[in-house]
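Re: [ENG-882] Designed sequences occasionally contain unexpected residues at chain ends

Forwarding the minimal case from QA. Structure tokens:
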């Protein structure tokens, strides 16, 4: 038996499109429901959190998650990926290198520094799944064989990281999952892997994709509109001295 968005605790952003805000780091996970396929956007911070997302998605849709899009390779968005056995995993070109070898160890250490239990971090890092599909430019996913639900994956970075992937769901309204290119619950975080000189241009690309009437889902915080994204773009340009 499926449950409603309200019963599940998820927020419906548009018909067949929802998101939830995960505890501790207030990270967003998104869900896009097609006729034959289900796309999850980001996988949570641990195998336990990934398993919770998998169960909630199945309760909402009556089907397993078939596609997983990783918006960027930070621990709170990717360490739950191994919980989605059988799903096709997508990431921006270069994401795989950030999830293997030294990159994997840095993810584990970063998770522990931010408060994740060391054993949970090690378990998730050891099981970490690399993307099966590297997105260069744009790629369309067909979640409905009749063409009723198509999703655009767009490699819009670099910006927050060197490998930022946005997910556009056309509709009325359209929905753009922004990853941490946009944050609402705090100032956008620019760590050592950020590319500040390109970040404002990445937000311009988000605005081109979604347009004025879309709903923009940040990696952390409440759903926002185009005006919020534009204001954050201008603030980042001023903060990092990037001219338009």
């Amino acid at each position: 038996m499926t449950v409603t968005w309200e019963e599940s605790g998820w927020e419906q952003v548009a018909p067949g499109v929802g998101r939830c805000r995960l505890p501790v780091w207030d990270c967003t996970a998104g869900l896009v429901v097609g006729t034959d396929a289900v796309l999850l956007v980001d996988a949570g911070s641990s195998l336990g959190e990934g398993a919770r997302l998998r169960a909630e998605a199945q309760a909402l849709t009556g089907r397993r998650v078939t596609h997983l899009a990783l918006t960027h390779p930070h621990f709170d968005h990717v360490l739950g990926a191994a919980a989605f056995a059988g799903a096709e995993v997508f990431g921006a070109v270069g994401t795989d290198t950030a999830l293997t070898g030294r990159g994997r160890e840095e993810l584990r250490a970063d998770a522990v520094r931010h408060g994740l239990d060391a054993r949970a971090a090690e378990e998730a890092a050891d099981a970490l799944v690399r993307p099966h599909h590297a997105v260069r430019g744009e790629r369309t996913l067909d979640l409905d064989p009749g063409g009723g639900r198509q999703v655009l994956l767009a490699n819009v970075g670099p910006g927050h990281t060197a490998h930022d992937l946005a997910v556009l769901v056309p509709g009325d309204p359209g929905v753009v999952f922004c990853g941490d290119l946009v944050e609402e619950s705090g100032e956008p975080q620019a760590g050592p892997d950020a590319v500040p000189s390109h970040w404002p241009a990445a937000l311009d690309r988000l605005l081109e994709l979604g347009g004025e009437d879309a709903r923009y889902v940040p990696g952390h915080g409440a759903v926002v509109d185009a005006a919020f994204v534009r204001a954050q773009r201008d603030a980042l340009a001023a903060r990092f001295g990037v001219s338009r």
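QA comment: On inspection the terminal residues look reasonable. The longest strand covers residues 175-183. Proposing we downgrade this to a documentation issue.
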